[in-house]
Amino acid sequence: MLMQLRIKNIALIDELTVEFTDGMNCLTGETGAGKSIIIDAISCMLGGRTSKDIIKTGCDTAFAEGVFYNESEAVNAYLREVGIEPEEDGTLILQRELSSSGRNVCRINGRLTATSVLKQLGSLLIDIHGQNDSHLLVKPNTHVNLLDAYGGEEISEIKEKYDALVKEFKALYGSLKKYSGDPKERERLADLYKYQIDEIAGSGLYEGEDEELAEKRNILVNSEKIAEAVNTSREILSGGDYGVSSVSDGVANIRASLSSIASFSSQYAEILSRIEEVSYLIDDISSDLRTLADNTFFDKNELNIVEERINEIDKLKRKYGSTICEILEYADSTQTQLDELLSADDDVREILAKLEERNEELRTVCEDLNFTRVKTAKKLAESITAELSSLEMSKTKFEAEIIFNDEKDEKGYYNFTSEGLDVVEFLISANPGEPLKPLSKIASGGELSRIMLAIKTILAAADDISTLIFDEIDTGISGKAAKSVAQKLKSISTSHQVICVTHHAQIAAAADNNIYISKHFAADSTVTTAKKLDENEKIKEISRLLDGDSESEITAVHAKELIAKFRSN
């Protein structure tokens, strides 16, 4: 339920706060005062399509905020779906700010969100109807949903079964894509996969081999330099032809000298211990250098072998991956694809058999759904006809036409939609002798308004949307029809919050909350205001609507009688 609407800098509205109640809320006022602007602001707040032209002249931004009391499970489920936890007290605040630069800022409970999210949430909160946009009626693709809502649990149980089977059918059908194409093409792919797998397996690759080969090549290429460095170092340590005493001899002399004085002080003994460690280390290094010198030699054939192996690995990298690890992973994934191709014929036969089984099973469920809808459509037509009769449309014929589309596609499958195989469209004949035709082609604005009221009256218990807005839905009707519309709006308001813009006294008299919209001129601007009417003010406004004179005593009596009639009903 919409409890409060706050508007700033929208069209003629400077800043405005409107308080709504449950039951029936009615907005009245002179033509051009700005009643429909308030509805436009609500649409904007709900994420509806708008433009920067809605911004009040001379302002850079416009703002609309709605405060709701929400108890809808559908709304709460959607909030959680988009990552917003509903407030425990049911408070829900929607905000939208437009700027002249085109910037659009939307918030849900203070959290920034996309306009699309705001729009989807708005569609669960409020349903807006006007005389020219009773969209649920002029769009045939929505008729099946209205019919199913009227059918209630009996239809919903069949649809649940249908939805589960359709989901499985689509999954099976989608799994055929990987087996699609010419069998010869699959055979060619199998040969290619085998070649690639054999090439990688035959190479004997292992992880880290390329790094080992790179190091080995570096050693072989620099073997002469390495041999010279090793021999020079060995000679210096152990003695040789370099004109100096060996490092080993020098360390041995130091060791002998320190040994002669080590007993005199612990300091000398400690230094001797360290020299002995150096001596042992030099002996180890000398031994290692001797081994390296004996084993370091240049083998041109071995270098060629290493180079060839590196080239072979590089070729594989260019074809299958930038690293050996990627090459091996490619081989594994290709093996999986090959296994799938080799087993494709068996898999395809199994999938096709399941598809055929589900195809016929779904057809049976669709027949059940069609039978139930046809039965429901007759009851709906009777109910709507009765409601239309009470809305001064007693000669109107209404029918929900259901066409069962059981044609198959080129593969032998039925054209299953989200609603089964039924195509549903509401038809109407507004005058005796005229054939039944689609609503969008024959019904006038006033007739559509009353048909919508009839449907809303019938489906009120099944409709989860808490707030219905009717923007001048009474245009094109008068007299008894206006009174009937008022009674229907009042009836709907017992289970929904109703907000309506009207010029009819009967409808205003039926309201639980009357709001008067007016405009006045201040300096060089026009300002729209909203005022909640008390009992006396309500009587005056209804008097004005009756004959244009809010001060007439006779009209005031009539206004009081109208109000009393609706309160007694």
Describe the structure.
The model has no long low-confidence stretch (mean pLDDT 84). The protein contains 20 helices and 15 strands. The longest helix is centred in the middle third of the chain and has 47 residues. It is α/β, with parallel strands linked by helices. It starts with a strand and ends with a helix. It has a domain of 139 residues. Helices cover 55% and strands 17% of the residues. The strands form three sheets. A six-stranded antiparallel β-sheet has the order 2-1-4-5-6-7, covered by helices on one side. A six-stranded mixed β-sheet has the order 8-12-13-3-14-15. Strands 9-10-11 form a three-stranded antiparallel β-sheet.
Topology:
Blueprint: E1 2-10, E2 13-19, E3 24-28, H1 35-45, E4 61-69, H2 73-81, E5 91-99, E6 104-108, E7 111-113, H3 115-125, E8 126-130, H4 135-138, H5 143-151, H6 153-175, H7 183-202, H8 209-221, H9 223-238, H10 247-259, H11 266-295, H12 300-320, H13 324-342, H14 344-390, E9 397-404, E10 422-429, E11 437-438, H15 439-442, H16 445-459, E12 467-471, H17 479-492, E13 497-501, H18 505-510, E14 513-522, E15 525-532, H19 535-547, H20 553-568
Task: Output the keywords.
569 residues; 17% strand
> Kindly state the mean pLDDT as a whole number?
84
The end-to-end span amounts to: 24 Å
Helix-strand category: alpha/beta
User: What kind of sheet is the major sheet?
Assistant: 6 strands, antiparallel
What share of residues is helical? 55-70%
Number of helices: 20
Low-confidence stretches: none
What Rg is obtained from the alpha carbons, in whole angstroms?
Answer: 44 Å
Strand order of the largest sheet: 2-1-4-5-6-7
- Beta-strand percentage range: 15-25%
Indicate the multimeric state. single chain
